[in-house]
Write a structure and sequence with these properties.
Length: 160
């Protein structure tokens, strides 16, 4: 399956009508321990990350079906690595649209924005099958970070 037709990637700040949909996608994916479980936390975080011209900033991919996915970029993600910045935040694609190019479109927009603002490297902390997704998009494994509680995170980076 290819990319859904007529997909647009826009700043979430310009499509505030998608804030609830993006926060729900994130809550459904990560709203279980050890992450926050309250949907209100995910909504507040999504609102806070919806800047227009500074970090944290979020883009949303959509088509006539609504929000298909989103990705944010922020100053920090994990406390263990506050010595580097910026970090990918809340990268999510609706399960129905995964594997169809939506994630690549979102990352391309994030990378272009970061490069245009002089960032040389972008970081992400993730796990599971997402590691392979980032590697297919040109990201390289940097390290594993052990976390208590919770599973270890893979830290990947991409030079821009």
């Amino acid at each position: 399956m290819g990319l859904p037709t007529a997909v647009t990637v826009e700043l979430l700040a310009d499509r505030q009508d998608y804030i609830r949909a993006v926060s729900e996608l994130r809550w459904r994916e990560w709203g279980h321990w050890p992450e926050p479980t309250d949907p209100a936390w995910w909504l507040a975080t999504t609102i806070r990350e919806a800047s227009r011209d500074r970090l944290p900033i979020t883009w949303v991919a959509s088509n006539t079906n609504g929000a298909l996915g989103a990705v944010g970029l922020g100053e920090f993600d994990i406390e263990e690595r506050r010595d580097r910045s910026p970090w990918v935040l809340g990268m999510i694609v609706h399960p129905q649209w995964r594997g169809r190019g939506v994630g690549r479109l979102l990352l391309a927009q994030l990378e272009a924005w970061a490069q245009g603002r002089g960032y040389e490297t972008v970081w992400v902390a993730t796990g599971g099958s997402a590691v392979r997704f980032y590697e297919r998009c040109g990201w390289r494994m940097h390290e594993a970070v052990e976390r208590k509680p919770g599973p270890a995170l893979s830290v990947l980076a991409k030079r821009l």
